[in-house]
Amino acid sequence: MQPMTASPCITTQRIDETRDFYTNCLGAAVVFDCGWYISLEFEGGQSLQFMEPQAGQALCSPAGLTYNFRVGDVDADYAEITASGVEPSAAIEDHPWGDRGFAIQDPNGIALYIYSDREPAPEFKSFFKV
Known about the structure:
This protein is of the alpha/beta class. Helices cover 19% and strands 33% of the residues. The chain is globular.
């Protein structure tokens, strides 16, 4: 198999709230919206999809699910996101494994970890395989 893209699709009853959160707070563009299914795309082509359950389909239980978003300037994104009224669930800080990041939650309870790469501490350098 050689996928050209891979993106999650979360079943939720919160389509409108989800669309507003990702577009207004995170700058995603709506590229498809039929009311019960939305496809959101970020600059660079990354996408997420959300849909209302169809024909007995179960709601997603996002407990424990985290999307990681690597960005160019985490401090600028932190300032912009918190200025929009979103409260971080984890404060912005440097981590010894090689990033600086913070976390927020979307309307579905999905954790969003937003980070920029940093030089890892010596004890973590051996874990990088590239």
